[in-house]
Amino acid sequence: MNDYLWLLPTVRTSLVKDELILFQGSNFFSFSPNGPQLL
Question: Could you tell me where the beta strands, DSSP code E, fall in 1-39?
Fold first, then answer.
């Protein structure tokens, strides 16, 4: 997760159901009960 901390100032978050989705431009990173995944 530390690799993604530098993205935080420019990342928008969206909480959908049980998933936390971080997105910056066209890059999506989803934190879900199944584990984080790059969308």
Answer: 12-16, 19-24, 27-32, 35-38
